[in-house]
Amino acid sequence: MKLTIRRRTNEDIDEFITWTYSGIYSFYDNNIQDEKIEGFKQSVDLERAFSVIDEKDNLVGNCEFFDVSDDGEEILAVGVQMKPLLTGKGFGSKFVKAIINQGREKLGFNHLELAVVDFNKRAIKVYEKEGFRKKGEFQNEIRGTTYNFIIMEKDWI
User: Fold this and answer.
1) pTM of the predicted model, to two decimals?
2) How many CB atoms lie within 10 A of CB 51?
């Protein structure tokens, strides 16, 4: 499966907001978070927001690169989401690698960070396989529940 990132379309976003996940991964459901739905709708014009497609132009996920600069240091982070039907099937590394490699081509970064909820062991394993290492932790309250997140980072020399 060859994956490509491209600009989002309104049709992509209409599909993204229907995505729901099973079990503990329902945390990532797009249809129950108004702020997530609005964020997707507003992202169609963003230069750092992409859809991920396969060689047949099928939508397989999305990603967004965003500025999380701190104390004057420029820091770029990425958020990724794979289509629910494809999760847990061994596509994670290929998915993340395509996003990072093509993101670097488009945006030219040499340092990248991401945040992942600590119970998402599948994602953490993929990020570690792709060279990300733990940088720190933080907590965030989402829909009335406090979650622990791990900040991971990777550098290219």
Assistant:
1) 0.93
2) 22
